[in-house]
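Can anyone check this?
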Amino acid sequence: MYTNAVGTTRRRRFGRGRVTGVAAIALAAALGLGAIVVSPGGAATSKAMTMSQAEAALATLEALAPAKAPTLTEAGSSLFYPLWEEWSGSTAPPPPVPVSPGKGGSGLGQSEAENGTINIGGSDGFLPAATMTGPPAVLNIPVAVSAQAVVYNLHGIPATDHLKFSSTVLNGIYQGKIKNWNSKAIAALNPKVKLPDKPIIPVRRIDSSGDTFIFTSYLYYGDKDSWTRQSPYDGPQLIYTTWPYVDNELAESGNSGIEAAVEANPGSIGYLGISYLPSAVFASPPLGYAELENGSNKFVLPTPGSIEAEVEAYPDIPANGAISLIDSSSAPAGYPIVNFEYAIVLEQQPSLTAADSIKAELAWAMDPAHGATPAFLNPVEFRPLALNALSVSIGLLNEISVS
């Protein structure tokens, strides 16, 4: 039985998101989505506020909400989408501005926010520095802390017996070098588990996916021989279109597509945004989810404590919010695939109403007294921003202005 951070059991089901077109995927590739992008070197960090200063700043921003604010549009990350659903459906307390959320993948969120089609783009990955500076200049604002699970369908193994995986083993699976569940590489990490002689079916995202961004980041940072390092580009980046082909792989759109494919195919494995983990472990029969090897060579489950331990290993947050929280080597208790969920917005808005509405809504969303309370975050397994990140996000909200 899976128990969430609130201590209650619940099952969540989310519909499939929009399928992005070729043009949107191409633009996402151009923006660097699905690529590993290191935090910009030398980026300044914002001076952290005290909590009382942060609370006062958030209250000031929330008060900017127009009396008759139009409905804001949000789309993008399917991992972030369940939290937007929680917020937009709330009546006690209600958000200061109405929002209509959507899915489509982080690439769609980035591209549609940049071209002004939507007000807010949801993204699991931060933007490349060149995109942030524009034109048009685009902000990526941390709003909450999320994570990613590795799930698998092996019904002969109790869901409570969490298999262990390293980035090296996952690399081998996703490039077709490790083909069977009872392979020596998997058995070496799980000596007490009777592994089946069954082919492995790797399941990955086919859309422009921030989940792919953070999953391949883990493969990159954890394994020096990873296929993610076979890139012609300068620096550690990999466009998702170079993903190696495996004969029996499955490619799906959205986290709901990954979850459904793993549930339907015994012997499969996939990476899944943590907001979908409660649903996965209440499948019939339930999916298993893994302990992952972190940067300290410890195997850790995705729990509230391990997610927060990973984030605490990054005391300096760049002023532009762009930082990878993957696979810290200084967090022995940290879960290695952790990320900020970003709101992607244009720095220059077309009207004061739009600018004030976005500021008010995002301030409310990250406010520990409002949108970042456990009542909103725990059902989707998210965590609130730490004070250092909250200070950065407030600074970025104040950069939103009128063109």
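Reply from J.R.: I decoded it. Residues 15 and 256 are 7 Å apart (CA to CA).
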